[in-house]
Each structure stands twice: as C-alpha cells, then as structure tokens.
Queue: 2 jobs
Job 1
Amino acid sequence: MKHLLKLLDLSKEEIIEILNLADQLKYENKNGIEHKVLAGKTLGMIFQKSSTRTRVSFETGMYQLGGQALFLSNRDLQIGRGEPVQDTARVLSRYLDGIMIRTFEQKEVEDLAEYGSIPVINGLTDFCHPCQVLADLMTIREHKGRLDGLKLCYIGDGNNMANSLIVGGLKVGMTVAIACPDDYAPDSKVLEFAKEYGDKYIQTPDILAAAKDADVIYTDVWTSMGEEAETEKRKIAFAGYQVNDEVMAAAKPDAMVQHCLPAHREEEITAKVFEEHADEIFDEAENRLHAQKAVMVKVMK
Ligand code: CP
Ligand code: NVA
C-alpha cells in the first residue's frame, strides 16, 4: 500500500490488515509498550478545513511512533494563495516522509499523490473520509467481535461519510442500508461500486426500513464543512432523518450507535440516544488514533 486516497483503492485483505495492526498498536499503547517504528520521519498535515480529531490523533500518533508531525494550515501555506498542488507536492516530497491532507476536492488528494513521491493519506475530502471509516470498522469489530454478516444502517446525508461507509462496509462483508432523501444520494461512483454487491446494498428514504434489524446505526451532520450556506435548506430536507428511540427500536436490541463527530444534538441524533451510546461513540473517536497509526506504519515504514 503506497497511499490511502480512498477505500475504493483497497482490497478487503488490505483493510483487514490495517484493522489487525490497529488492534495490536492499541494493545501496545494501553500496555505501555513503545513502538517507535517511524523514528526520524516527518509527516506534513495540510488542513484546508477545521479539525479536532484528525489533527490531534495524527499528531499524537506520529509522536507515539517516534516521528514528528507538522501542522500546515492553508492560511499559512502558499497553496492558500494559489500555488499549484502539483508544485506543492514536488516541494514537500523533498522535505517530508508523508503527507496527510484534508481538503475539498478529491482530485487535489489524487494530484498530490501523482505529482509527489511520498505517501499521501486522505484526512477527509468532500468525496470520502477513509481514516474515519477504518476507525469505525475497528470499533464495530471490537464491540461485535466480527464484521462479516452484520447490518450497518446509515441515516442522513449521502455525503463523504456515507460514501466511505458503503465502500468499507460492503468490502468487509456487511450489508449496508442507507436512508437518505432522494436529492441527497451518495456519489454515483460509489453507487456503481455498490451494484456489484446486489441486495447487500439497500437505499431507501424510509429510515425505519433501513434501520430494521440493524447491528449498527450510524449518522452524520446534515450540513458538512463547506456547505454552510445551505444550512437552512438542509434543515428542511433532512427533517425526520434522525437517530432517535423509534429508530433504535427498529434495530436489533443490542444495536450500537456510531457518529464520526462533531454531533448536532436534536438534528441528526437525539441527545438521549447520543448519551445512551456515548461509550461506543467515544471509543470510535479514540480509535482514530490507533487506526491512523496503523495506516502511517503501512504507508511510511
Ligand atoms: N470525525 C472527524 O474527522 O473529526 P474532525 O473534523 O474533528 O477531525
Ligand atoms: N460530513 C462531515 C464529516 C466531518 C468529520 C463533514 O465533511 O463536515
């Protein structure tokens, strides 16, 4: 594995290998066993959007692996003043050992990988959020003991999270049900991919049908970063697309809840369901650290 640009690029075996390594790194981390396998290496982290989890987990993770991380905001980089990504890629490749980038267009991430000569990790684009879904799969496997044969239900916007959950979930053998308004469906490339999985992929505007007998209920904000101008319109379009008691009653009695965070209580999830499942949600947030360390080891070691 040279880069992590999107889950579409990974085989099922590569995903499972990352999850296994993440489990091992988590175990070592909890037991005070050092693993400075990236000693002397530097990761540049380009952020064109805000972040709490991604920034802190990558920076801490790199430190725990013996390397260092540089926070590069587009407010400070020349990229923010229009220097082409093709040039930025070639320059940063002369200094760094890896780049993590959070930006808008997926093409920018792909260009960085194409023009640079060092590993590139996607820390979220409008198209996908592969690091988040690796942490999600890790958390689900930790809680349920397996992934194969589980039903994952996602309620809300057919956004970057939905796109990555469909690809990651189907690849590891889950049934994935997406409940979204017709006008906010997942990306057409992802739907094309999902077609290969027949009835393992379900898409419906009916949230209770999607949630029926689900093992995992997942949701994300109605308005993603960069879409703030549409907030009011989206509040109308997504009214009813909420994880609440009714949804949880349709799911299996032991269903878990996942949310990539940040969460908007009483919009995509009620405060009650959120707090009842807070342990699962914050395990998920913690696992960003372990899963991303596994990704960095895979691509940078
Ligand atoms: N879930 C997630 O990526 O969080 P941040 O935006 O805080 O990085
Ligand atoms: N869909 C959200 C995810 C944040 C982690 C966004 O892109 O803003």
Note: Strands lie at 42-47, 68-73, 98-102, 120-122, 151-155, 175-179, 201-204, 216-219, 256-259.
Job 2
Amino acid sequence: MGALSVLVTGGAGYIGSHTVVQLLKDGYKTVVVDNLGNSSEVAITRVKELVGDRANNLSFHQIDIRDKPALEQIFANTKFDAVIHFAGLKAVGESVHKPLMYFDNNIIGTITLLEVMATYGCKKLVFSSSATVYGWPKEVPCTEEFPLSAANPYGRTKLMIEDMCRDIYASDSDWKFILLRYFNPIGAHPSGHIGEDPHGTPNNLMPFIQQVAVGRQPALQVFGTDYSTKDGTGVRDYIHVVDLADGHTAALSKLSDPNIGCEVYNLGTGKGTSVLELVSAFEKASGKKIPLVKTGRRPGDAEIVYAATAKAERELNWKAKYGIEDMCRDQWNWACKNPYGYPTQETN
Ligand code: NAD
Ligand code: UD1
C-alpha cells in the first residue's frame, strides 16, 4: 500500500503547522490549504526545512475553503484518505462583535468542505473542536460526556460543527468523524523554527506573556485574583502544541478502526495550572521578570478548566508527554529566535 494522503485545512496556522511536521515525519502525503488570513507562508517554508527529504510529500495551496470550485480542484487532483480540519477564525472577543463573520467563515467553510468531501467520496474527518464547548464546567476534570454550551459566537460555531458531524453520521454511517476538544495549546516546536504568531495584540495568556518578555508589551494584566483556586487566579490545562500534534496522528490512525463512527476526545494533560504558576514557570525558563497588573475578571471566563484524559489514553493510545517547564522553554526558544513572529518574507 502506498503512503496515505491527508488534506489539512488551516495547515499554515499554529496547531496546523506543528501537525503537518508530525504527519510528514510519519510518512503521510500532505496537502495544505490555507487562505493565510491568520498565518504566513513562511510557516510552510519552515516546516519543509524541518522535515528534510519528506518535504517532497508536502504541497501548499493558498485557497479559502469557502471557494468551492478551488476546493473541488484540489480533490479532483488527489484522492484523500482523510481530512484534518483546522481552518477557522478563533478570536472570542472578535466573534462577539462580528458574529456573522464567524458563522460565514467557520460554518459555511465547514459545510463547503463536507460537501466537497462527500462528492469525492472522502468521508473521514478530524475536526478541531475546543474545551470552550464545556462553558463554565460544574466540576473538573471535564469528561467528554459533560453537558455542552456556547458562551459566545466562536464557541457556538464549534458546537454547531460538532452537531453537524453527529447529524451527518446519523444519516450516513460511511462517515467517520473524530472531534478533538483541545484544552490550552502553548509552546512551540523544540527547534524554535515554528510557533504561534498572532496578528495584533494577543488575547490568550501565553502569547501575551511572550510579548511582555520580548518588550512588546509593558505588563501582563492578570484577569481576576479572587477565584476559588490555589492563588485566586484562573486555572487551565495547558498542553504542549507538539503533544497536541501527536494527538492528531493518533486520531488519524483511529479513523481506520472499522468500529469508529462519530467520536469525541479531549486533548489535554489533565493538570490544572494557575495564571501565576504559568508566569512563574515562564520567568524561570526565560530569566525575564514579567511585570503584572492585577485587574478584574474577564467577562465570560471560567474559574477552573482541565481535562479528563482517560478516554484519549484508552482509545487513541495517546497521552501528553510534556510538562509546563518544557512548554515554557520551547515558547521562549521560539520567542528569542522570532521576537516579531515570522518575517513577511523568508530572507535566507
Ligand atoms: P490559527 O489561526 O493559527 O490557524 C487557523 C488557520 O486557518 C490559519 O492559518 C488561517 O489562515 C486559516 N483559515 C481560517 N479561515 C480559513 C478559510 N476560510 N479558508 C482557509 N483557511 C482559513 O489557529 P490555531 O490556534 O492553529 O487553531 C486551529 C484550529 O483549532 C481552529 O479551528 C481553532 O478554533 C481550534 N482551536 C484552537 C485553540 C487554541 O487555543 N489555539 C483552542 C481550541 C481550538
Ligand atoms: C480562551 C477562550 C476560549 C478558547 C481558548 C483557547 C475566552 C473567554 N475564552 O480561553 O474560548 O477556546 O482561549 O483559544 O476568551 N488571562 C490573563 N491575562 C491575559 C490573558 C488571559 O490573566 O492577558 C487569564 C484568563 O483569565 C484565564 C487564563 O489566563 O484564566 C487563560 O486565558 P486564555 O489563554 O485566554 O484561555 P482561556 O480563557 O482558557
């Protein structure tokens, strides 16, 4: 049997680029489609540099997944064994102000992709869902059976797409879906060659800490110091992006299990870390002092969120390997080598 072919939507982005490295290392033929709306083609160049000869198995097309004829052309040229679907907008605050933009990009984009997949007989999908679908969980750890809710339009797109996948599977059991609920991905490839490159001011904690450390922001605002947690700050399940990438290759292998239908898995470490603990670990890894400004809670934030990991361990045979120190070390390595993210053009 020849190498399996995988289409990766959003593969130039943060999680996508790390996953593409793993796919190429594992011998998959990989086609990336991305509109580069929140990413840079330099990420693709860097991925190629990281994988040596395997770069021959990677091709990139700058297209929007809502462009059906362009997507059909990609499927007409390659018979895909599966699709990993990262492409989407992900800024919670922006989604509150521009819900239609989020519904158009995330929902219409996914419907277009699923329609083209059906037309070309490719019915295996791994989808990037989020722990955001647990809302403010009534207890922790969050198991996959917890009730689901959406606190904002971004979260609603994740929930709607999950529901769409469940309905499609109910209508046609030839489909196989794996819905991966990511907790909080941070860190970067240990080479420092690829990492997260948010456009504008970051909303998430780790990219903000990084920008303070390299002098792009004066101080970190700590959103809430009165939570019922060990030090009063919010607790999250941070997961190394390389572990997350490995979770995707594990999910792809699971798609060839004849018994799989539409399944959900948490991808987290099962450990909770507070804002102050993460800051302190980052200070240790970087040798930089992160000035803090303690402010009120951010609206919509949950108190404590971390994953139950047993289902992924048991059924995907996958478990996160890296700890907070590794995540901070690799984040800092990426930050030192790329303090302003990817250059607009690769010069070397
Ligand atoms: P990212 O923005 O770095 O990557 C998403 C990629 O999709 C970008 O390269 C962007 O240009 C591309 N894209 C967006 N809309 C597109 C479209 N219509 N057509 C083609 N390409 C398009 O984000 P990421 O952090 O790598 O996240 C990947 C996925 O994982 C997203 O769906 C996100 O919602 C989900 N997710 C991310 C996190 C997180 O904290 N990073 C947590 C949970 C879930
Ligand atoms: C946020 C999103 C969530 C999304 C997730 C991953 C909100 C309300 N939720 O979750 O939908 O799935 O990102 O992309 O935006 N913090 C600070 N200062 C900062 C930034 C964050 O103190 O400048 C705190 C937050 O209050 C929280 C923790 O750091 O306690 C983590 O925040 P963040 O990285 O934004 O992730 P989530 O809140 O988990």
Note: The domain at 5-337 is CATH 3.40.50.720 (Rossmann fold).
